[in-house]
Amino acid sequence: MLDVLVIGAGMTGISCARRLRASGLNVVVLDKGRGIGGRMATRRAEIDGQIIRFDHGAQYVTARDASLQQALNEISDSAVIWDDAGKPGAYAGVPGMSSIPKALAEGLTIHQSERVERLEFHADYWLATTETDSWQAKRVVMTVPFPQVAPIIGEDHPLSAKLIGLEFAPCMTLMAAFKPQADIDKSTRLNEAIDLSWITFNSGKPKREDAVDAWLAQASVEWSAARVNQDKVTTEQEMRVLLCEALSLDPADMLHSAFHSWLYARIVNPLGVPYLVDETQSLYLGGDWCLGARVESAWQSGTAIAQALTA
Ligand SMILES: Cc1cc2nc3c(=O)[nH]c(=O)nc-3n(C[C@H](O)[C@H](O)[C@H](O)COP(=O)(O)OP(=O)(O)OC[C@H]3O[C@@H](n4cnc5c(N)ncnc54)[C@H](O)[C@@H]3O)c2cc1C
User: Fold this and answer.
1) Is 57 in the pocket of ligand 1 (CB under 6 A)?
2) pLDDT per residue over 139-177, tens digit each?
3) What is the pLDDT of residues 236-277, one digit of tens each?
4) CB atoms within 10 A of CB 101
5) Residue 233, phi then psi, degrees to nearest 5
6) How far is ligand 1, taken at its centre, from the CA of residue 289, in Å?
7) Residue 14 CA to ligand 1 centre (angstroms)
8) SS (HEC) of 229-251
9) Which domains can be identified in the chain, with CATH numbers?
10) Considering only CA atoms, which residue is closest to atom 26 of ligand 1?
């Protein structure tokens, strides 16, 4: 039986599992995705015979937290200061944002493509069931976005009631590549008041050597929320038009585009405490939704849970 089962290999799950492992506990991490890092995500696309990496989730990481700063220092090949983030001391991943969680997860036992469907308490252990497997653990740490908790532990579980009223904002995201353009402003544009509230030159991140100009655009919360139920092809097309207008580029020069709809992008009203724990002190819930809409908040939540479990 495992000492601890961690559900979710985003930054919350990784920070928690790293500490638990360092304390000598037998820890396994399960994630439903094919990659590691959750919303610290990178999508690859082959464009004109070259692999281009688009960071379509978190754009950068800041590290006011000393333990996160130390961890980033340890993976300095994968986390490099990005001057054009619009935030001093912001790190981007090399070769992509997902390289940061991958490097931080080195040495952890992580099983990917394992979606936990059910979690049940059996007197003195927890049983987690996935589509193909089951796992027994003395204690469980769930780090999935809060709306995905109740379907796993049950709507009637006392912890599910504590999540009522929390809210995630969506974020519609466009990845686009153009023929190289020498004469346009490639600095990051952040303006919450307009439809495309974040536009950044993805190819300008540290150590990218793209032969095309790759751009990343995120729509504002209002614009995104209004299109949650709209078909994705239409939303992508709308974003393509907005991006070409914003950059004054000819749509005919667009070589590639891809779209992602994040329904649970950023927590609007974080819980205000780093985690929740059940009455048996053996089921912990954590994530960025506890402390704030940042990678750093996810890291702090996972760290706080590990500290509680090893105290
Ligand atoms: C578009 C966008 C832009 C952002 N920009 C920034 C930024 O620039 N800077 C910043 O600091 N933050 C940014 N954020 C926020 C940041 O990405 C998050 O705060 C942080 O990555 C959350 O980490 P987490 O581990 O709490 O959750 P997640 O990263 O969501 O990880 C949860 C994991 O749980 C897994 N999972 C879910 N359900 C199950 C299940 N049933 N079984 C198994 N596994 C499951 C998921 O696959 C996922 O890997 C951005 C987010 C988005 C979406």
Assistant:
1) yes
2) 999 999 999 999 999 999 999 999 999 999 999 999 999
3) 999 999 999 999 999 999 999 999 999 999 999 999 999 999
4) 29
5) -65, -40
6) 10
7) 11
8) CCCHHHHHHHHHHHHHHHHCCCH
9) 2-166+271-310 (3.50.50.60), 168-267 (3.90.660.10)
10) 287
